[in-house]
Amino acid sequence: MSAAPPDTIVLIHGLWMTPRSWEHWVERFKARGYNVLAPAYPGLEVEVEALREDPAPIEKLTIEETAHHLETLIRGLPRPPILIGHSFGGAMVQILLDRGLGAAGVAIDSVQVKGVLRLPFTTLKATFPILANPANRHRAVPFTHEQFHYAFTNTLTEAQSRAVYERYHVPAPGRFLFDGALANFNPHAATKVDCVFRPCRSLSPVQAEHPFRSMPNTG
């Protein structure tokens, strides 16, 4: 007797974003009969406006803490869900699949996990304002609208881009960016994924049609 198909989708957001960024995806998948969860990173279970006002919870976040938070949520579900993540959420999908979680995973414009060496110039340019200052590792670091437009909304008009920025943007944890950038030099990197001995056959990497510049495609 075959196992029942997944009935739940878990949407995992990336940096400079919150679960609000999935609002239209939630509506779309619910309309197709799925249970849909869009969890926040731990400590970020408040609105965008509140995080802009007080980004202190963002400063404290670590990759491992966030992965554990998501793992706990997923293990509490009655059936393995489909995991969909964007940007650093895509890396989280890969980490969670590596831990044996999820029925399948989709990584959209994923952050590189440990072992991925290719880093396009556009990624370096998009993240350079943060990585250029080592003090940012312990800060919640926002994008200006101009930086956000280059990294996220470069196919939109100025007015459209600014509306997206005002609706969704929050600062990002600098620790995520520094730990991700230095993962290949850290034998215990939180983004280490074992796809040699545990092949990620259930992962579907997706590169969006628009040029998302802050993270490379890892497919």
Task: Describe how the helices and strands are arranged.
Blueprint: E1 8-12, H1 23-31, E2 35-37, H2 48-53, H3 56-59, H4 63-75, E3 82-86, H5 88-98, E4 104-108, H6 121-131, E5 140-141, H7 145-151, H8 158-168, E6 172-173, H9 174-181, E7 203-206
Parallel strand pairs: 1-2, 1-3, 3-4, 4-7
Antiparallel strand pairs: 5-6
Q: What characterizes the major β-sheet?
A: 5 strands, parallel
- Counting DSSP H or I runs of 4 or more residues, the number of helices is 9
**Integer-rounded radius of gyration:** 17 Å
How far is it from the N-terminal to the C-terminal residue, by CA? 34 Å
Strand order of the largest sheet: 2-1-3-4-7
Strand content: 5-15%
Number of strands: 7
Mass-distribution shape: globular
Runs in which pLDDT lies below 50 for 5 or more consecutive residues are: 209-219
Instruction: Give the integer mean of the pLDDT values.
Output: 87
Class by SSE composition: alpha/beta
The secondary-structure element order is: EHEHHHEHEHEHHEHE
The percent range for helix content is 25-40%
